[in-house]
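Researcher: Re-running this chain for the archive, since the previous output was lost when a drive failed. Same request as before.
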Amino acid sequence: MSGEFQTTMLIRISLILAIIAALGAGALNFFVVKDKLTTLVADRDTQKSDKETAQKDLASTKKTLASTQKDLTQTKQQLTDSQVAQKNAEDVATKATKRAGDLSEQLAKTTKERDVAKDDLFAYTVTGYTSAQVAKMGRDIKDFQEAVAAGIAENLLLTKKNNVLSNELARLKGTEEFIVRMRPDLKGKVVSVDPKWDFVVLNIGSNQDVLENGELLVSRDGKLVAKVIVRTLEKDRSIANVVPGWKLGEPIEGDVVSPAHPAS
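Model: Regenerated structure tokens:
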């Protein structure tokens, strides 16, 4: 009995020791896990705090950035307004400068006109004539100039009629030396050519003192091309036939014509 009792006791002691060891290990594991949990909780709290701080910093940075962008926009607008104001000021200055130049020119012109008027007044004063006498002399001079112009025109008309009558008289007499003379400064051009019938159309006529049966020399670049005689006469146009034996080349549009027998 004593042997079984001892064995039972040993077993119980072993179980008790095993339970105590297990409890000790459990307690140890509990403290280890507790430390790890405490560490994890502390890390979590730290990360959470850091995250909140980062979010606050981010919000502050965004706010600062928005403020900076607003300031930049305002600065750009102020710069634009300043540039517009400067351009307006330059435009005003340019207009003012031009106005000053115009006024200076007007002043110079007015001063010149005043000086001319003073000279005219002095010249009028030294003549000893009254204003009525000077005005009458001015009218007399104008009447004289008009009379001279009328006389010149009449003289030209009489000369033209005399040439026409002289040419007609010579033609009626049937003299072999019948020559139609036209004014020496007469110039014209060929505007059309008919090589088949040997005639040309000229851009001058009776209004330019061209005479029927008058002979004209056709030239190009200063060289004689042909001689033509007027057969059909209109106010501003005439038709002339090429004189046989005087065709040195083919007349073309643009050739120049002048009197073959200019009046003296």
